[in-house]
Amino acid sequence: MKTVALVSRKGGAGKTTLAVNLAISAHLAGFKTMLADIDPQRSATDALKARVAPGPILMEINAGKLFQTKVHAEHAGLDLLIVDTPAAPEADVLQAVQCADLCVLVCRPTFLDIASVARSTEAVRRLGKPGLIVLNQAPAKRLGEEPTTVLQAVQALRFCGLPIAPIGLRARAAYQHAIARGLSACEWAPGDPASQEIERLWRHVEALALSTQDVSQARTN
Ligand SMILES: Nc1ncnc2c1ncn2[C@@H]1O[C@H](COP(=O)(O)OP(=O)(O)O)[C@@H](O)[C@H]1O
Ligand SMILES: [Mg+2]
Description:
Layout: E1 2-7, H1 15-28, E2 33-37, H2 43-49, E3 57-60, H3 66-75, E4 80-84, H4 90-99, E5 102-107, H5 111-126, E6 131-135, H6 148-158, H7 173-180, H8 185-188, H9 193-211, H10 215-220
Parallel strand pairs: 1-4, 1-5, 2-3, 2-4, 5-6
The chain binds adenosine-5'-diphosphate (ADP) and magnesium ion.
């Protein structure tokens, strides 16, 4: 089983949006998937409870229960655990990073988000975890040109020393409509731009998560 934690110390960056979309994508791809919601705001829980169709298993837990939940999920034969984290306290975020095989750092193209991601990057690297930065809520291209804010954000994020996902998410109403019904953007409007972004991001995250080395293997090598 692989564990992917969505991390950002800024509220509103898009952790829950990505956690729900990735968990549903994994479920639809045939992975036995659990979404652990360790954020007391319970936004991922609200989203998945609005879902009518079968979907990922939902666990509403405190950060302190995450390790135990992971062990149970592994014993139950699950393939993937997605963890939706709060912005704070730091100790709870670090629990999720500790448990993760891959940390997905969610970042809007703003100065404060980038500064915050730089700090989170430090923690991820200190704990020796693979990480990936995903740019979210990027403004749309204008006349085919990438807005300066996005170009500058990508340039600044390169200094963090973690890979930046080749596909980010634009600010699109589809994400808000979809999550209100417990759907992924792919289910809400198949083939639409938001759907294509999620499909490509899921494929990237899937490949990265599956390529991470199992902790047990790492110990014996
Ligand atoms: N790419 C996006 N486009 C439009 N709205 C988005 C996007 N990502 C997130 N949102 C919206 O922004 C708000 C905060 O997102 P959320 O995923 O709850 O962030 P976090 O979990 O990091 O606090 C929500 O209302 C969500 O629907
Ligand atoms: Mg959230």
